[in-house]
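user: can you give me the structure for this one chain? tokens are fine.
assistant: on it. calling the predictor now.
[tool input]
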Amino acid sequence: MTVARYELDGRVATVTLDRPERKNPLTFALYAELRDWFRTLDPAIKAVVLAGAGGNFCSGGDVHEIIGPLTRSSPEELLRFTQMTGDLVKAMRAAHAPIVAAVDGVCAGAGAILAMASDLRYGTARARIAFLFVRVGLAGCDMGACAMLPRIVGLGRASELLFGGRALEGARALEWGFFNELCEPDALLARARALAHELADGPSAAHAMTKRMLHAEWALPLDAAIDAEARAQAECMQTRDFARAYDAFVARRPPRFEGD
């Protein structure tokens, strides 16, 4: 059964969760497939779009294929599962390419985590983001939610969403900073892909460094972060893209970045 489609357009890959009749749920196999794909992301890919088919992003873990079996699993099996789902988020955050989530319709549970683990999120007014773990008797601390969500929307708002499990509608998601931009549903994917191509055509080595440092500096005090950024930026200054940008400025023409 096909549950995800992978398309390549130049240096931009689009990953589409493709089980629209069930609102694109995650299965055991799909978690592992996505984890492995991001872990081994082709260096030639410079940006990724993550989307869902059929007017919805992702309804979370499949009730029958995941939640049902988990109620009959041993403690060891449960831990292997939760660590595997967390490994997908780790793989997304460690991937060199920026990830743009195109979120329409239902974006719930683990689907909301995938959107949150992306670097940028474009949505629609009809999108509904919900961290539903509390509704099935689970904690909101799933796949890094308690670490990531407060950094995106603030601690109080994250607490409201994780304790209450209520849906965050598209306009409010933009207001709270979960979405970077709202689009019309029929323009969402094109807008996300346009941004991804813009990122891919930029200094991709520098973008990879920005992503790495945004992740690494979560746990650093300011002085340590400044020192880490000094080393990172000095490394970027050794790239050919940096020299190309200077030469283009002198020549009064737009720079052409190659990612090296």
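assistant: here you go. The chain has two domains: 4-200, 204-251. The chain has a mean pLDDT of 93.
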